[in-house]
Specification:
Elements (H helix, E strand, L loop, with lengths): L4 E6 L7 H14 L4 E6 L1 H4 L6 H17 L7 E5 L5 H10 L4 H5 L2 H12 L10 H4 L1 H10 L5 E3 L5 H18 L8 E3 L29 H9 L18 H9 L2 H13 L4 H27 L2 H30 L3
This protein binds adenosine-5'-diphosphate and tryptophan.
Amino acid sequence: MEKKVVLTGIKPTGVPHVGNYFGAIKPALELSRNYESRFFIADYHSLNSLKDPELLKQYVYEVAACWLACGLDPQKVMFYRQSGVPETFELTTIIMAFSSKGLMNRAHAYKAMVDKNREKGKPDDHNVNMGLFTYPVLMAADILLFDTDLVPVGKDQVQHIEMAQDIAEALNHNYKTQLLQRPEAMVSENTQTIVGMDGRKMSKSYNNTIPFFAPEKQLKKLVNKIVTNSQDIEEPKDPDSCSVFTLYKLFATQDEQQALAERYRAGGMGWGHAKAELFEKMNSLIKPMRERYEELMNDKSYIEKLLKEGEAKARELAAEKIRQLRKAIGID
Ligand code: ADP
Ligand code: TRP
């Protein structure tokens, strides 16, 4: 039986953070052991919000180096930039004709912008570009181009995968052929929403992220900035309502988690101690990966070479898909 296809992408809009690692990168790399895998850098997706060419370039390398340092094996995984597979944009044009505007109106990212505008008394579409409005169509093209079965993502992206399903079904229905594979989202239960330094979802948009490869000193500083309550050292503390503990759980074994939880409940442990424990755990996991990441960031031509190789492979598959579709729609 043919292996199923798993695909996921990360937008290069900033340096990868702990939420990206646990919500997207780690689960994807685990799946790559048993699936045909395609992991890519969604660079054109960034353009909607990022219009500084130097920064965009920098973030593409950051995200690429992050995937590689976290263990992506380019011999096993197809690894590429979205922009390196221009067939994506032809598929976008094709599926535009099967994507209803009403569907786009319901997209969370667009709705959030509208709500923000209303709050400020601005017109609904203030600052909304067409790239943002049609974002789910481009994302559907990324997915549908490669006959994807599974898309590991954080919870916030599930709606986009559902839209890709709707679009695929609309096209298949019209041509009465299974031209596009129906993708399924895959959200891992315990890592669906990683909290940031302020206890809200960790996100670049909230400015509460802990960059995964922050240098040791900066990592320590950020951990110390995690918001806690004002209980003093002696008081027993509740691990389950504490962001420090929530983050600790991601890095520690079951036994270690239990041991720290007991220290919380017993009292006599201050926030400084809890944070020091968290920093140690984080740093010991991240350290070897950080070293590899720094090496890679100092050798961008190597990253470039790997991406180009991945793009050549991806384009072969993509071109075949576009050929099939053009034939089916009568443009060949
Ligand atoms: P951000 O919200 O910081 O802009 P992205 O939207 O670029 O992050 O997310 C890239 C990937 O990482 C997506 O699959 C997303 O679902 C996942 N992700 C981002 N933040 C988190 C989080 N706090 N918890 C779990 N997954 C996350
Ligand atoms: N929209 C995703 C995000 O913001 C990134 C992305 C673009 C993606 N294309 C994709 C994720 C295709 C999975 C599959 O995080």
